[in-house]
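STRUCTURE:
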């Protein structure tokens, strides 16, 4: 009797064990099927919905539990993203301008639920691209085509400030803005090149004129100095000075004489300067 009871007890425990394993397995299946948790990755935020209604709570990075069926979590990327946009606009002097810009932006993390609720996940196409187009056209219209080139930093800053103010109302923050390129019509480009060439030629002509003026002034100064020197020399000339110059010339001729008298006489003979005076002195 005792052995029979023991066997019955063992059978009961075996049945209970299998029943518990079945229940545990069923629970696991239900958990994986309904997945009552969500993982929010790096650079993401979780937007909680209760039966489709967006909640104020925004889930940070990590694992969070949710109520199966009743709650769903939408993952929103809040990392810095890049948008490149081309736009055709006109300058204040009615020149056609094609611009290409790059914008770095991100969703304000704590406002991810509002962005999803009001705009959805396609906020770039719905908000950012149209805002860039409008700002580029509005700012370009305040500058001439030439100013868009010469005042490029100011134009870029004005566009960034306008975009920052505009997108902030949609809970999107602007991190950086840059103008990649300006392009104009071929006619305007040719006109700019012709103007630059004319300015360069005018600058070169001015430099040449300045150089000629300086050289002329130097020539005049040199001529004036020489004339003044001649004038002073004329003022200092006297009979005694002339006689002294003759004596100096005769002495130089005697020093160069080799002692041989000229053999040629006649009308074409060269006189021997100062010989008579030298003999008298002896």
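SEQUENCE:
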């Amino acid at each position: 009797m005792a052995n029979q009871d023991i066997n019955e007890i063992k059978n009961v425990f075996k049945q209970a064990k299998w029943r518990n394993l079945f229940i545990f397995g069923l629970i696991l299946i239900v958990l994986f099927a309904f997945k009552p948790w969500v993982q929010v990755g790096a650079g993401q935020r979780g937007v909680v919905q209760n039966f489709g209604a967006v909640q104020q709570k925004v889930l940070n990075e990590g694992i969070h539990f949710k109520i199966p069926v009743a709650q769903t979590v939408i993952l929103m990327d809040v990392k810095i993203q890049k948008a490149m946009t081309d736009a055709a606009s006109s300058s204040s002097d009615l020149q056609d301008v094609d611009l290409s810009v790059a914008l770095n932006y991100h969703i304000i993390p704590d406002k991810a639920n509002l962005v999803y609720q009001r705009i959805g996940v396609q906020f770039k196409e719905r908000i950012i691209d149209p805002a860039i187009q409008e700002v580029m056209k509005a700012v370009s219209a305040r500058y001439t085509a030439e100013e868009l080139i010469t005042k490029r930093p100011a134009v870029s800053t004005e566009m960034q400030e306008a975009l920052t103010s505009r997108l902030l109302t949609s809970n999107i923050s602007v991190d950086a803005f840059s103008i990649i390129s300006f392009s104009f019509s071929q006619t305007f480009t040719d006109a700019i090149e012709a103007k630059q060439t004319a300015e360069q030629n005018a600058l070169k002509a001015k430099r040449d004129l300045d150089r000629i003026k300086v050289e002329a002034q130097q020539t005049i100064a040199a001529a004036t100095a020489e004339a003044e020197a001649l004038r002073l020399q004329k003022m200092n000339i006297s009979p005694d000075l002339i006689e002294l110059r003759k004596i100096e010339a005769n002495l130089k001729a005697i020093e160069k004489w080799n002692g041989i008298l000229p053999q040629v006489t006649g009308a074409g003979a060269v006189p021997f300067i100062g010989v008579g005076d030298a003999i008298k002195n002896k």
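REMARK: The CA atoms of residues 108 and 171 lie 6 Å apart.
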